[in-house]
């Protein structure tokens, strides 16, 4: 029984740390540039995995196909997906961005239909309608408090699409090298190189204010994200993607609670509750009933 519950506990732990990480990023955006913040976030997470590497790293891991699979993941996650997600937070706010990010299992189902020949099932249709309905609660015309363009919705949705592909690859790679920490180490190390190269090609004169309190928030976000990825990979090692991803998709609930109860920066109203419930229920129903 304990073994059955462990993936659930790991997934919900990952959901909490993802939510805490997105709130730390949102705090950092008040003080420092988002792209520099993303680089610091990834660098901190990479350092986290390397500092723990003496506890788990095995030479044969580097010689297995998993190393290449995890490296492929690092080419787009988290560097590219994190930039999209962070831009979404800046444009949409943490709750809506995190809620739309919860569509990762939905994209996983769509990839299965398009690329693997899976059937278009009733749960997929129902879940899609729930996601669309939930999003419309926040984007429908007449909402005077919306100060962002509709195209900004593509930012967290794009990040979600990339994450869904990464989850599938991580699950495959763990079959060759059963180490959640090694998966995080390789992916983040490659992604750090990608993020650093992108930053050096910016071609502007902006300089990092190393004493800015925003940098400390980005470092904290890196620790949160590394912990979230670690626990998520551990859950993926023990349970199917269709079980893990719906539970991780509960992160908007944690995001909303942190915003309202800890940071006191957001009011929980009926519309926000309905939005989160519809989107999370939709993606959970899709993944849980596949």
Walk me through what this model shows.
This protein is 76% helix and 0% strand. The chain is an all-alpha fold and 290 residues long. The chain has one domain (2-288).
Query: What is the beta-strand fraction?
Result: under 5%
Strand runs, count: 0
Residue runs with pLDDT of under 50 for 5 or more positions: none
Number of domains: 1
- Given helix and strand content, the structural type is mainly alpha
Mean pLDDT: 80
Order of helices and strands: HHHHHHHHHHHHHH
How many DSSP H or I helices? 14
Percent helix range = over 70%
Quickly list its features.
single chain; 290 residues; mainly alpha; 14 helices; 76% helix; globular
Quick recap of the structure?
The protein is an all-alpha fold. It contains 14 helices and no strands. The chain has one domain (2-288).
Secondary structure elements and pairings:
Blueprint: H1 2-28, H2 34-52, H3 59-62, H4 65-74, H5 79-92, H6 94-101, H7 104-116, H8 122-139, H9 154-174, H10 180-200, H11 213-238, H12 241-248, H13 251-262, H14 270-288
